[in-house]
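Workshop exercise sheet. Pairs work together: one partner reads the sequence aloud, the other fills in the structure field after running the prediction. Swap roles for the next sheet.
Pair: D.N. / O.F.
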Amino acid sequence: MDILTKRETGYVGRFAPSPTGPLHFGSLVAAVASYLDARSQQGSWHLRIEDLDPTRESASAANNIIQQLELHGLNWDGDILYQSERLDSYEQARDQLTLHEHLYPCICTRKETDRVYSGRCLNKAIGDLSQPHSLRFHISESELTIQDRLFGQLQWTKHRDMGDFIVRRKDGLDAYQLAVVVDDIHQGITDILRGADLIHSTPLQVSLFKALREPHPRYCHIPVVLATDGRKLSKQAFAEPISSGTAVENIRRVLNFLNQKNIQGKSVNELLRNATITWNIDRIPKLRGRSEKT
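Structure field:
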């Protein structure tokens, strides 16, 4: 399968927002943390726009995100990768997974599906169905374990913590889990640093890496930012966009949230440069979610 490019040497990180709205404080935390982690190890840092769901996306969001990152001094390496331009690669990956019997059609609706999928359609064969169906990936492992850089050992058990998952939706759109893994392979990503709200995706992606016969990256999940009512800051919950007019203060707030203390600088570039020198991932609080105010 030609989904690979020549791997860079050393650390290769990335930030991969969906263009469903401008960046809020929680997404800026994830961007800054992954940026500092990469730069502190003389690594490269890539920007990927995960624009696979037109029904949820805003026409201006991608450009707004790019401008917000630039104004906050978060400069990426190489060209921006847009997932909407890589549909052939996802199809190629599905063909490989189908060939090795990792995929099966699923006619279940969301109402018929529990949090962890039971495998109800596991015995259905691709090509046997004329009715609308999604494609699910079959997790063959009964358990999966990784060593998270912040949380330590994480383990998931099949049917309790994880289940077979969709890689192509009934409407024909490619699903997140497959696209992100194919693109991580394509970009040679060695390290993924992201919010703890995505921990549930990690075993699914690790299983996909194994099925595609590629090593999975190292993972580090950091606390998500909680609003005053205890909910995760998110675009869906109408989190307030960060103001580019207060970029220096925004970076200071992020560094404080990440517990990177006493960073001096009068500009975003000075703050990021000094924070890169003193970056210490072990200072980040080991919580799945925390308020900016705590």
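Discussion prompt: Residues 12-289 form a domain with the Rossmann fold fold (CATH 3.40.50.620). What would you look at next?
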